[in-house]
UniProtKB/TrEMBL annotation:
Record's protein name: NAD-dependent epimerase
Organism: Desulfoluna limicola
Lineage per the UniProt record: Bacteria, Pseudomonadati, Thermodesulfobacteriota, Desulfobacteria, Desulfobacterales
Keyword Transmembrane: yes
Domain of life: Bacteria
Segments crossing the lipid bilayer: 443-466
InterPro entries on file: DUF2867, Ergot_Alk_Oxidoreductase, NAD(P)-bd_dom, NAD(P)-bd_dom_sf
This protein's UniProt keywords: Membrane, Transmembrane, Transmembrane helix
Residue stretches making up the NAD(P)-binding domain: 11-124
Keyword field contains Ribonucleoprotein: no
Length: 497
């Protein structure tokens, strides 16, 4: 029998939770995760991690998830939800506190937000109310309060990066000069991890932040310097938080409602006043400059470890259908289709792509694009694909190369075309509530103005090329090998073996 204390992690599909999950697993903790989409999360956890389907609004599932738990992480909030998010947060916290008390949980660890005063934004007020509800229970609660979190894929980092990358001239309202104390995501994770072993006899608040107070303007200037940009920043007196949030919806990746809640919180000063974190923990917080440099280093990978858009709010998941968005320095075109076939069959339709088999839709456009690539000194599509049936990491595939291949699950391609930027194309098979899905994601990191211009030039073609790809991929997977449907398409050179 495993004698290690059992830890419950909620919010493991969110930005902080996903990072914390990997660290806790890596350090050998006995771990259980509760998620509304358990099947989705199970694909992202290590073999020894227990994943349970549960919801903070479902008391029965909550009681089962907390059974036998020693320490519970509460990383749930409804910032991305529509409607009365404050009431939802309040009810969720009450449910969790009561269930934890009844289950005999020894400690709750919660990540909230810094800020003080009578004019707190609704978002910060709700985060602190959740902390108060948890602390008022009989379960000792350690409430961390943090300011801006800086890391690859974090909401605040996406805001700073998108504004600085896209706007050579910026009009700065008063709120960009309000002081905060940005903290790197790695430092946040270290605090949370160390908190597991911290003795706690009564509830307390611990304020955490980076090495120095800075404003959003300071962060944008620091980011611009790290990227080698020169930006002209002009202060203006009239841009209110409400108007700012609408403007952010046009020039940054933020959803309008999330942007408004974020800006309303930015107007509040969020700096560390109580230095007790330095006494209780061994963490030596990095500077904002170091945090930005580390975030940029991580963004050189194909994908950030986790992104704020990965989070599933308590109001529901991300909207279905194609999603095309600007995410800081990258563009994303993401599409999902359900498949009435086994995961293996679905992945077979993915693994056969390229070469003589073609790209499922508008192959002549792929040939034309390859010809243009040859004209500018690229590889074109003349390399085809390996003669063997199976792909491996490192294989060439027309003007792509296989960057990552996981049998029956994932194929990630990196472009070797001559491009004003970097491009990836990823296909993944997932099972969600017993339904098999193919996820197709195109990602492009533009290099300067020409990179953004290139994406806008090819964007009209994506609507039918990428949609046709995933649609025909699903058809291939669903149809029987000897069906008339497949035979007819083979006759016309489509769906070749």
């Amino acid at each position: 029998m495993d004698e290690r204390p059992l830890i419950l992690l909620t919010g493991a599909t969110g930005y902080v939770g996903a990072r914390l999950l990997r660290v806790l697993e890596g350090e050998g903790f006995r771990l259980r995760c509760m998620a509304r989409r358990a099947a989705f999360l199970k694909q992202r956890t290590a073999e020894g991690t227990d994943v349970m389907k549960g919801d903070v609004f479902d008391l029965k599932s909550l009681a089962l998830a907390l059974e036998g738990v020693h320490t519970a992480f509460y990383l749930i909030h409804s910032m991305g939800a529509t409607g009365g998010f404050e009431e939802m947060d309040r009810k969720a916290a009450h449910n969790f506190a009561k269930a934890a008390q009844q289950a005999g949980v020894k400690k709750i660890i919660y990540l909230g937000g810094l800020g003080e005063g009578a004019e707190l934004s609704a978002h910060l007020r709700s985060r602190q109310e959740v902390g108060r509800i948890l602390r008022e229970s009989s379960v000792p609660t350690l409430e961390f309060r943090a300011s801006i979190i800086i890391g690859s894929g974090s909401l605040s980092f996406e805001l700073v990066r998108a504004l600085t990358e896209r706007l050579p001239v910026m009009l700065l309202p008063k709120w960009v000069k309000v002081l905060a104390q940005p903290i790197g995501i790695e430092d946040v994770i270290r605090y949370l991890t160390e908190a597991v072993g911290l003795p706690l006899s009564e509830s307390r608040i611990v304020e955490v932040g980076g090495s120095e107070p800075l404003s959003y303007q300071d962060l944008m200037e620091t980011y611009a310097k790290a990227r080698g940009f020169t930006r002209l920043m002009i202060p203006v007196p009239v841009l209110t938080p409400a108007v700012s949030s609408l403007w952010l919806g046009l020039v940054t990746p933020l959803y309008a409602r999330v942007g408004r809640k974020l800006i309303e919180g930015v107007k509040n000063k969020t700096v560390v006043k109580d230095p007790v974190a330095r006494e209780l923990f061994t963490v030596e917080p990095m500077s904002a400059r170091e945090a930005i440099q580390r975030a940029l280093m991580n963004e050189e990978r194909a994908f950030a470890e986790s992104r704020w858009t990965d989070a599933v709010s308590s109001a529901g998941g991300k909207p279905p259908g194609p999603e095309t968005a600007w995410m800081g320095t990258r563009y994303i075109d993401q599409r999902t289709r359900r498949v009435n076939a086994t995961p293996g069959r679905a992945f077979s339709s993915i693994a056969r792509i390229g070469g003589r088999n073609g790209w499922y839709a508008f192959n002549f456009l792929w040939q034309i694009r390859g010809a243009f690539d040859l004209m500018v000194g690229g590889v074109g599509v003349r390399r085809g694909r390996p003669h063997r049936r199976d792909l491996r990491s490192g294989d060439h595939l027309d003007f792509w190369r296989v960057e990552r291949f996981e049998e029956k699950q994932l194929l990630r391609l990196i472009s070797e075309m001559k491009l004003p930027g970097k491009a990836w194309l990823e296909f993944e098979v997932k099972t969600n509530k017993g339904r098999v899905e193919i996820h197709q994601t195109a990602i492009f990191y533009p290099s300067g103005f020409m990179g953004r211009l290139y994406w806008l030039a090819v964007l009209p073609f994506h609507a039918f090329v990428f949609q046709g790809m995933i649609r025909n991929m699903v058809r291939w997977a669903e149809e029987e090998t000897d069906s008339p449907f497949i035979k007819e398409r083979r006759r016309w050179g489509r769906f070749k073996r």
